[in-house]
Specification:
2 copies of one chain form a homodimer.
Chain A (H helix, E strand, L loop, with lengths): L1 E8 L12 E8 L8 E9 L3 H4 L12 E8 L9 E4 L6 E4 L6 E2 L17 H14 L6 E4 L7 H10 L3 E6 L2 H10 L4 E4 L5 H8 L4 E6 L4 H7 L2 E9 L13 E3 L2 H6 L3 E4 L9 H14 L6 E5 L4 H8 L7 E5 L1
Parallel strand pairs in A: 8-9, 8-11, 9-10, 11-12, 12-14, 15-16
Antiparallel strand pairs in A: 1-2, 3-4, 3-6, 3-16, 4-5, 5-7
Helix pairs in contact in A: 2-3, 2-8
């Protein structure tokens, strides 16, 4: 008998997530699979801020992606040992009756399979397609990325460097700033907790911002838009400053600055381009192998600690991608 | 001797423009032109809301476009009688030393030459390029235009009809609404002074808005964005609700709705596409001649009445394009 552990959303989020929002349950899965079925055993699970924004109904298993190993199979297309990535939720074991919905993880060689939850998965593809299509960065332009040490932001900054841009990033600790500048080659970085945004942009992007990749939202977004150059492009990828607020920030509306400088601002989601992921994954893997794209993971050991890893996202505990190792 | 009348911005705008912002002056122009010069005599002048947004320095002649007749010429490329359109400001007579900056008005046949300030000029090209490039309307989609009886809005609605869209428009009087629906073929119209926006959009665009062409700004813009469909496109063309406010509206920020529905919002300005105007003007003239594009002008007689025509823009006095006939 296989016993699956799973995290349930015990009550709807309200304000900052805490442990009372979750409860763990176990579920006994049948030993016998039916024709076509496979049993997936989670190896790595992902926690991402979007899970606060698109929560499941209370009482359901939390949604989310995992990298799993097929440990039993009645489907010849998915033999035992196959490594897949899929939106199976916060659970250790899952019987999948239609494995065609599972994504086989490509051969990553010596690279960790958890990359399929980071640079080689949703955050990477959000950065790749979202940044390139919404921001259209050109050689020599100035790019500003906030929450730049996060799972998506650090990849955006690295793509911008590859595209020949000057990259300015903000993050919430000296350690993160150091990694962005020394580890990833960002041109300018600042700690948003110690430097006011307006001063930082004047100092680090005196020529104005051409491309803005926004993970933060709220009034910060408007203030960056006001610092953008004519015909600048912005991608709205996340609003982590807002997710835990019951009353969203009110503030000066951005339509005046958008009109004066003919800005283009676009909301983006990683899954929207899923049909084109293979192309993006191929490029990303090449960049990683060439050493042009570096990655960092903050790994939490143990499925039981998944909730604290999730909660930690909102206080900036992670550097790079937050991963749970079962 | 030629005496030119001109309107000076006497003091910077603050709040709603009134007659104290302006003074009339006269200027004596030399009788003798130099080699290459021409004398332009205004026939029609334009007043547009943008003049409140991009004002000239106090003490200068107000900026703006006019249609003028060359009444003296020392330039063989611009003989007497040539009709031109140019940004010559609020003045009756102008000596132009570099006529290459003047735009010759194409042969409009029996159509009024004032169209070069409306459908065949800046408002028309703002509608044409701004709407098509920022909103990318597709056959069968729902388009919402506010201030739809204004110089730009009415043209946007008509282009949207030509492109096979369902068009919903708002305006500030029953007379304007009637013109939009019965005169121009808008599918749905409402009077924003008597119908709250949210109710109006629910009633007239229950399927959601795919393309939004915004002339109004402020909280109305956010509220329309919240009613848009996935991957909707918005053009921010004007913010007439805001121009006369010293304190701009604050309100709920739009980044959440933009992210959830992957909206694309772009600020647009008519002059930005000036290199491509010939293509747009050709199409517009064809539509006018085919009867697919109708036009309406609110004509104020007399250069002396130009200020009151300008002030009237902000209380919605004009239907269609506001024109001053000298």
């Amino acid at each position: 008998m296989v016993v699956c552990k799973k995290w349930i959303l015990a009550k709807a989020f309200s304000g900052h997530p805490d442990s009372s929002n979750f409860r763990m349950e176990t579920e006994e899965l049948p030993d016998q699979l039916k024709e076509g079925e496979v049993l997936c055993e989670a190896i790595f699970l992902s926690v991402d801020p979007y899970m606060r924004l698109f929560p499941v109904p209370p009482g359901s298993v939390m949604m989310g992606e995992q990298v799993a190993r097929i440990s039993k199979s009645e489907n010849q297309n998915f033999p035992v040992g196959t490594i897949v990535q899929s939106m199976l939720g916060w659970r250790t074991h899952t019987i999948v009756s239609d494995p065609s919905k599972l994504n086989k993880v490509p051969d990553l060689g010596d690279l960790p399979k958890s990359l399929a939850l980071g640079a080689m998965g949703m955050p990477g593809m959000t950065a790749y397609f979202g940044f390139l299509e919404a921001c259209c960065p050109k050689n020599g332009e100035t790019v500003f990325v906030n929450a730049a040490a996060g799972a998506v932001g650090n990849i955006v900054g690295q793509i911008a460097k590859i595209k020949g841009c000057k990259v300015v990033g903000s993050a919430g600790s000296e350690q993160k700033c150091k990694w962005l500048k020394e580890g990833l080659g960002f041109d300018e970085v600042f700690n948003y907790k110690t430097t006011p945004l307006e001063k930082a942009l004047k100092d680090h992007a005196p020529q104005g911002v051409d491309c803005f990749f926004d993970n933060v939202g709220g009034e910060e977004t408007t203030n960056v838009l006001k610092h953008m150059n004519k015909c600048g492009r912005a991608a709205i990828c996340g609003s982590i400053s807002q997710y835990n607020k019951e009353e969203k920030d009110k503030g000066e509306l951005p339509y005046g600055p958008m009109l004066m400088n003919m800005l283009r601002v676009k909301g983006i989601q990683g899954w929207h381009h899923v049909q084109k992921w293979p192309e993006g994954l191929k490029q990303m893997l090449l960049w990683i192998k060439e050493g042009k794209m570096k990655y960092k993971e903050t790994v939490t050991e143990g499925f039981d600690n998944m909730v604290s890893a999730f909660i930690g996202l909102f206080s900036g505990q992670n550097i790079g991608k937050a991963i749970i190792k079962v």
